[in-house]
Amino acid sequence: MEKPHILHMLTPGTNVSAFDVNMALDAGYHAVIPYTGVTLEKIATLVQDAIFSRSPKAEKRTGMFIGGRDIGLAADMLARAKESMVPPFEVSVFADPSGAFTTAAAMVATVERQLKRAHNTTLTDKQVVVLGGTGPVGAAAAVLAAKNGAKVRIAIARDVADARSTADDCNARYGTAMEGMDAAAETLLNALLEDAEVVLATSKTGVQVLRAKHVGAAPRLLVAADVNAVPPAGIEGIRLTDDGVPLPAASRGAVGIGPLTIGNIKYQTMHMLFAEMLHTEKPVYLDFREAFEAARKVVG
User: What tens digit of pLDDT does each residue of 52-89 get?
Assistant: First the structure.
């Protein structure tokens, strides 16, 4: 009798995500076991309990998932999990805190697609502004854009120190050269948009970060993407299912990408990564970089 596929779901928070549980079960896991309040120091013990309870041949039917909200902590937990394996006792691990890695991957992959389709260009050397970029999705999307050749600025309308701290932390961890910028005042936001060729709206749900007049004041804008599916839209003029639809207020043929378009790619990307864990012969370690490659395959 074959052993069941088991996924151990770890989170520093008080509960695992119901979305993640559904995705894992729909992908083919037979059992999903939640662990809450998990700290970095507990990772090694949890990993070794999981790996030593099965034979090396059965390890491929065991997986671990790391959730939470902090992308830096999730990255550290993934690294600690990998360090804690004792080959041939080794299982696959997938980190996707708050769904941020797969959402960011889907967002940047769809932007790449529209840069190519609508403007016959790439992210290389593009000026990218990430509005609300201090959250997990914004920070992950900013890193992906930067690692693929863009010049990235993380902007926030609250405390600019948060934007600078996020940029500094990502730069130190991933070797990027992003800047944290202040977008609290209209003049500061318009100054950011003067050079912006790509705008990523990753603020809290229900918060509009760009009005139509701001889009019209961005003379170099090529693509704008919004992950906010709760009214009002994060970027005025972008509808839920837009996928390369021209922005009425734009002056240079800029196109918009809506949250349900991004969400559909995110869903397929996450399913693909869970399926990879289920069917791999060798253990895999998955974060936003592998998510981005999967999202690229999904968008074609």
Answer: 999 988 889 999 999 999 999 999 999 999 999 999 99
Alpha-carbon distance of 251 to 126, in angstroms, equals 18
This prediction's pTM: 0.95
* 221 within 8 A of 252, measured Cβ to Cβ: yes
CATH code assigned at 94: 3.40.50.10280
> Which residues lie closer than 8 Å to 283 by C-beta, 6 or more apart?
59, 60, 85, 90, 91, 92, 93
What is the percent of the chain with per-residue pLDDT over 90, rounded to a whole number?
Answer: 86
Domain extent at residue 196: 103-262
Q: In total, how many domains does the chain have?
A: 2
- Cα–Cα distance measured from residue 29 to residue 25, given in angstroms and rounded to the nearest whole number: 5
Question: Is residue 1 one of the residues assigned to a domain?
Answer: no
Task: Indicate whether 80 and 26 sit together in one domain.
Answer: yes
Instruction: Quote the tokens at residue 8.
Output: 């151990």
Both 122 and 231 in a single domain?
Answer: yes
140 pLDDT above the threshold of 80: yes
Nearest Cα to Cα of residue 94 among 271, 264, 245, 232: 271
Residues 56/88, Cβ–Cβ less than 8 Å? yes
Surface-to-core class of residue 35, CB atoms within 10 Å of its CB (0-12 exposed, 13-18 middle, 19+ buried): middle
pLDDT band at 47 (very low <50, low <70, confident <90, very high): very high
